[in-house]
Each structure stands twice: as structure tokens, then as C-alpha cells.
Amino acid sequence: MSDSRVDAAGLGDLPCYAHIAGRIAGTGLTCRGGFIPVSSDGLHNLLPGGVAAVVLVGDLGGRFWPKFAAERRDEADPLDNWSRRVLNAAARDLDALAIFPFDGPPHWPFQQWAMRAEGLQRSPIGPLIHPEVGLWHGYRGALLFDREIDLPAPGPAPCPCDRCDAKPCLTACPVGAFADGDFEVAACLAHVTAPDGAPCMSGGCLARRACPVGTRHTYAADYQAFLADGFVRAFAE
Ligand code: B12
Ligand code: SF4
Ligand code: SF4
User: Fold this and answer.
1) Same domain membership, residue 56 and residue 82
2) Are residues 96 and 37 located together in one domain of the fold?
3) In the predicted structure, residue 206 carries a pLDDT above the cut 70
4) Radius of gyration over alpha carbons of the chain, in Å?
5) Are residues 98 and 47 in the same domain?
6) Separation of alpha carbons 161 and 128, rounded Å
């Protein structure tokens, strides 16, 4: 990759994590830590000089939503396409390569990477839980660098589920989609596409909403409806 892109962006030879985070903040997204890959991650061949550092990019509490809503295009998969546009542009500026959670299958193991990057753990209903925003966060891409980056120390972050005896997330689903300790996609789909499923479709997954952590970061109603619609469409195709 050309050093001129780094110089043109005024970054010097080694973009530091704070500088990367600043560039990403301009997209509306957030840097979510990073990790140094090992050969079993299968990333090294993606850059001619190998991959020395990975920075995860995502969202906390749906903060990116207004920026996306203003910039979205009338197209299939608008969020994935917007993510590609803004992160490919950032990657060019930072002399990096962007890869995405929606690439595949096979999918890149973003949740496993996030556990390494931020020390998060999985909630009993699947999504990783964040100590501040709870279940209201996600990942939009990863930036691969062929050089070392001063990555933040990964934690471990405290896991709110360890202190949550009631675990309301496991019992809030009207059709018991998490009753067997796994996510019963068919049961969920049947419910959300029936009239009784309107609250899940318009306000978001009731199991996710039952979690007492990070409630002030709950996604806006139009983002919840967008996610529910995307989930249904993914299985209708
Ligand atoms: C395929 C997929 C799904 C499928 C199937 C999931 C499954 N059980 O296999 C379906 C469509 C059902 C799904 C649904 C949802 N998903 Co999903 N999904 C993915 C995707 C694209 C690939 C997962 C994968 O196979 N990874 C490859 C393996 C090797 O990596 P891994 O890290 O070990 O992945 C494992 C986990 O993702 C786990 N898993 C995922 N969902 C669930 C749910 C439960 C209950 C359990 C036990 C495990 C589990 O299964 C994977 C295989 O072991 C990831 C993005 C990504 N690239 O990781 C998003 C991802 C995991 N999904 C995400 C989310 C938020 C959801 C939803 C909650 C809703 C939504 N879109 O708003 C729903 C509802 C599911 C739920 N309540 O948990 C987020 C999780 C963010 C976070 N906070 O951790 C991700 C990371 C996408 C993102 N862009 O941020 N998902
Ligand atoms: S309700 Fe409790 S167990 Fe469930 S995700 Fe929230 S903190 Fe974790
Ligand atoms: S969206 Fe509704 S039906 Fe599906 S898992 Fe969540 S609460 Fe259950």
C-alpha cells in the first residue's frame, strides 16, 4: 500500500489509535479497541505485508443512527452499503483495509474478536453485553493495518450478567425463543410476522429490552424497526 495516502492524510508514518478513532468518529461510528492477530485468525494474507494490528469499528447505543439516516441511499441493504462506503473511505485515508461482519458466509468471527478487543462476554441471549450500554451496541467493520498500532488494553470489562440473578432477558420472549439456551430463529420469526408480534417489530426484541443494563442507550424506535425488518427480510429471501 502507498505511503502517500498516509502522508496526504497528514498522519505521519504510524497512525496512532487516537488518530484512527478521530477519523472514525467523523463517520458517526466508534473505534471499539483492537487486537494483534495470530496466524490462526486467517487474516495475514489479506495485506501484502501481513496484518500487524486490527481495530474494530462499531456503535455504542445507536449513536451512529442519525448520521446514517441522513446519508443512506435508496438501495438494498442500505446499512451494509453505507458501512462499506464510510469505512472503505476511512481505510484509504488511514492506509488500512476494511473488512465487514456481513461479509460471508463464512462470516468473520466479530464477537470472538470483540471479546479479545474489549474483554466483553456473551449474554445468555447471544449478543455481547457491554458494562455501560448493555445489549445496545454492534459492529460495522474492522480495519486491518500492516504496522503496529498503540491499541488500548482490552480489559477485562465487568460482565453485568454475573450479578444479574433474575435474568429477565431469558423469560421475556412471548414464544420462549431462548428457553433451550439457544436462539430458536423459527419460533421468533413465526411470532414477529404474526399480528401478536407487532411490539417486537416496532419497538425491538422484548428479550433485549428486558435487560436492565444500559436502558438509556436503548435504540431509537426507527432503528429498532429497521433491525426487525432486516431480520424478517433476511429469512424471506
Ligand atoms: C449469522 C448471524 C445471525 C443469525 C444466526 C446467529 C446464530 N445463532 O448463528 C441470525 C440472523 C439469527 C442473527 C440474529 C441476530 N443477530 Co446476529 N449475526 C450473525 C453474524 C452475521 C454471523 C455470526 C457468525 O456465524 N459468525 C462466525 C462465527 C465463527 O463467529 P462467532 O463470533 O463465534 O459467532 C458466533 C456468535 O455470533 C453466535 N451467535 C450469534 N447470535 C447468537 C445468538 C445466540 C442466542 C447464541 C447462543 C449465539 C449466537 O453464533 C456464532 C457461531 O457460534 C454476526 C456478525 C459476525 N460476523 O459475527 C451477527 C451478530 C452476531 N448479530 C448481532 C445481533 C445484534 C443480532 C440480533 C440480536 C439482532 C439484530 N440484528 O439486531 C439478532 C437476534 C439474535 C439474538 N437474539 O441473539 C450482532 C451482535 C452484536 C453484539 N452486541 O454482540 C452481530 C455481531 C452483528 C453486528 N453487526 O454487530 N444473527
Ligand atoms: S437481563 Fe441480566 S443476564 Fe440478561 S443480558 Fe441483561 S444483565 Fe445479562
Ligand atoms: S424479537 Fe420477539 S419473538 Fe423474537 S426473540 Fe425477541 S422477544 Fe422473542
Assistant:
1) yes
2) yes
3) yes
4) 19
5) yes
6) 10
* N residues, the chain: 237
Counting the structural domains of the chain, the total is: 2
pLDDT band at 33 (very low <50, low <70, confident <90, very high): very high
Residues 122 and 229 grouped into a single domain: no
Domain limits for position 138: 3-158
Q: Do 154 and 170 fall into the same domain?
A: no
Q: How far is CA 159 from CA 64, 90, 162, 179, 196, in A?
A: 24, 32, 6, 21, 33
Q: Could you say which of 115, 142, 158 is where a domain stops? A: 158
Residue at 52: amino acid letter: A
Instruction: Look up residue 40 and give its three cell numbers.
Output: 490462526
Answer for the pair 203, 224: CB distance below 8 angstroms, yes or no: yes
Evaluate: CB of 139 within 6 angstroms of ligand 1: yes
Determine whether the shortest distance from the Cβ of 167 to ligand 2 is under 6 A: yes
**Co-location of 125 and 149 in the same domain:** yes
Task: Confirm whether pTM is higher than 0.85.
Answer: yes
Q: How many CB atoms neighbour CB 69 within 10 A?
A: 15
Strands 137-145 and 128-129, by their bridges, are unpaired
Ligand 2 centroid to residue 2 C-alpha, Å: 46
Would you say 54 and 154 are in contact if contact means Cβ atoms under 8 Å apart? Answer: no
pLDDT digits 0-9 by tens, 58-75: 999 999 999 999 999 999
Ligand 2, atom nearest to 210 Cα? 1
Ligand 1 proximity of 199 Cβ (cutoff 6 Å): no
* Contacts by 80-84, CB closer than 8 A, 24 or more apart: 83/29, 83/140, 83/141
